[in-house]
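Deliverable D4.2, example record:
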Amino acid sequence: MWQEFIQWLEKLQIPCTFQKHWGVCCPGCGFQSALIELLKGNIWESIHTYPALIPIIITILLFFIHLKFNSKLTAVTLKSSFFLSITLILSNYIIKLISQS
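Output generated by the structure prediction step:
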């Protein structure tokens, strides 16, 4: 059942229209592939493909925890996780742009 779901996701992948039109990858390129690798259990391959995926997932989970408990600790943790995610997205994007040149 799980393998069928993963195969379905692999067939459903959407090509990057930004890359198609402009010839360079977008900041989100690799997200789908990294998610599929993570679902397969290939954590290191997922991190290599898109380093910000796991922090983004953690940020989303922290957001829902913050909505439920609304404490200062959850707010600070959520902000930190958000900035880590943004930093990883931007640094990964810059590295991809440099390596494509």
